[in-house]
Amino acid sequence: SKSVLDFGCGIGRFAKRITSLGIEYIGIDPSLGMIRKAIDLSGNKYFKHFDGVTIPFPSASFDTVIISEVLIYMLKTPAGALVLSEIHRVLKPEGRLILIEQASISGRKSESASEILTENDYVQALSAFFQVKNLYKVRSPDFSKITCRIIESPKVPLSVFHCIAGMLANYEAGLVSK
Q1: SS3 for 106-133, per residue?
Q2: Selected residue with higher pLDDT from 65 and 136
Q3: Which of these ranges, 22-36, 47-61, 155-169, has the smallest mean pLDDT?
């Protein structure tokens, strides 16, 4: 049977989708509040509280580890390398790490992140423990605050919006500065 560890699972947003595929799922998070909410939302006890670094499972326990929006906060901290080492430890030989993170293409940082992290930062950090085989880039479906204001404003006629749509797309892609 296949097994997935969701590192930094939060409220367990992947739990139902993964278990519906017949895959064993366990989510871990350092926030006891998140774990409680995950259990409440799912009705299951696939979730475990942990210290944020030391993964409470034996070596070679999981076929896959998923990390989503976690490393952006800790990759360049002393815990970053320890976490990657722990993930490597609990993965089975030939196991897979699926990492879903923000990477700056513009040299600007996300409002929520403490560091500017590029695709290369992630690849370098991961390469110390893993063989990086595939890298996919996906643009976020969310718009910046300025784009939302322009879209939501009744004062901007549709014809004007169409004229500035290309500029907004470039802004969202980080190709033009504020």
Answers
A1: CCCCCCCCCCCCCHHHHHHHHHCCCCCC
A2: 65
A3: 155-169
Residues 6 or more apart whose Cβ sits within 8 Å of residue 43: none
Residue (of 91, 7, 95) closest to 47 by Cα position:
7
Question: What's the CA gap between 162 and 178, in Å, rounded?
Answer: 19
Are residues 154 and 178 in contact, defined by beta-carbon separation less than 8 angstroms?
no
Bridge partners, residue 29, by sequence: 49
User: What is the chain's mean pLDDT, rounded?
Assistant: 79
> Which residues lie across from 98 on neighbouring strands?
66
Q: Nearest 5°: CA angle at 7, between 4 and 13?
A: 75
Cα torsion 72, 25, 48, 61 to 10°: value is: -90
